[in-house]
Amino acid sequence: MELTHGMAAVVTGGASGLGRASAEALAQAGLKVTIFDIDEEAGEAHAKAIGGTFARVDITQEQSVVAGFDKARAAHGQERVTVHCAMTSRRGKTLGWDKESGRYKRLATEDYAFGAEGILVSSYRVASHSALGMANAEPLNEDGERGCITLTASVAAQDGQIGQVIYGSCKAGVNGLVLPMARDLMDIGIRVNSVMPGIFATPLMLGMKDRNPQMWDQLNASVPFPKRLGHPEEFASLICEIARNSYINGHQFRLDGAIRMPPK
């Protein structure tokens, strides 16, 4: 799919980290980007910087997502590229030792459900609402392509660590969405893929550099090659290539410097 000047895109979580880099890269390619995020100050500022639009969107709320797409389409027309980076989750082991009671304590089902909503359900929500809009748009090329949706999974989908029972399994679920959804949408001309980033130098990770420089050095050294955390721009580069290359469909990409996560 040719990324033409003025084509519309939506990036969730576009106020920071991987989403911010993706929004910037798409804007540099000539697209009009709408950022979905709950951080209004950072989202508005980044949208202004890249010549785009900001919509305050809570990905866990159906009507918030619908309203976000309405605002994006009113500003730039039907999005042809959607990148879903936003998420929310909780952390904990299936069973953890409770010092107060001297017994094992189970991770609450409510905590698991919160993560499932914030990772897996929200991925379906964003992707399906975007696909519905794309389906009613005219094809872009002779292949009949109408758009490209890219979800963000994680290497934890395959290498889930201790304490990541929610995160790892729900990110695996995101990967599980890809092929059946791509097949559901194949006759409409909408592609669906996912990216599994490894350890990236997002603001959350960069904070460790000053707080715990020893741990920071260990994290960098743990990556086979190159021996550093990934740059958000490298994630964004792959996002753009997935959008451009019409033969990439139903695929899950690891982007991790060949790292394989240990149990902890």
TrEMBL record:
Q: Which PROSITE patterns match?
A: ADH_SHORT
Which SUPFAM superfamilies does its entry note?
NAD(P)-binding Rossmann-fold domains
Superkingdom of origin organism:
Bacteria
Keyword Flavoprotein tagged: no
> One Pfam family this chain carries?
adh_short_C2
Q: Name one GO molecular function term.
A: oxidoreductase activity
Q: Which PANTHER family match?
A: 17-BETA-HYDROXYSTEROID DEHYDROGENASE 14-RELATED (PTHR43658:SF8), SHORT-CHAIN DEHYDROGENASE/REDUCTASE (PTHR43658)
Write the protein's name.
Answer: SDR family NAD(P)-dependent oxidoreductase
Instruction: Give the species.
Output: Erythrobacter aureus
